[in-house]
Design a protein that fits this description.
Blueprint: E1 9-10, E2 16-19, E3 23-28, E4 31-36, E5 42-46, E6 49-53, H1 59-80, E7 83-90, E8 95-98, E9 103-107, E10 114-117, E11 122-125, E12 131-136, H2 139-152, E13 162-165
Antiparallel strand pairs: 1-6, 2-3, 3-4, 5-6, 7-12, 7-13, 8-9, 9-10, 11-12
Amino acid sequence: MSRIGKSPISVPTGVDVSLSERTITVKGPKGQLARDLPGEINVRQDGSMLVVERPDDERANRALHGLTRSLVNNMVIGVTAGFSRELEIIGVGYRAEGQGPRALRLALGFSHPVIVNAPDGIEFEVPVPTRIVVRGIDKEKVGQVAADIRAIRKPEPYKGKGVRYAGEKVLRKAGKTGK
């Protein structure tokens, strides 16, 4: 039995979960998320708990059991607390400016500024010019937007300049030796 899949998900007060044929919809104070259930995995509600069940012990169903439980749990957490991902910018002249909560203007050493527009459900915050906070209720979308911003100028291994996740360790190379 999957250790992750068999643990129930507690639904806090103020969160409404509706189950249709193959879709689960979670509404909360921060918004609403919906997802199709994969394979033959079923979700049932027992009072204030959600239980994820699989029909048998086939390999595909075992693989989807824990995944489905994690996805549904992330939906419940997202509509109550939300998710955020922090990025930091390192480099001389590298900076970010917020253009409202839906757009970013990045100066990353290119000959032009890079404008990043937020997709639906995502907001940007720039507390200082070298730090970006990506916020939203969908964990998958928050992580993808943060990865897209990081991909614009990945940290390079010699000086460490670029956009990185907060707390990320960048392996440094030695560089050339002088004669």
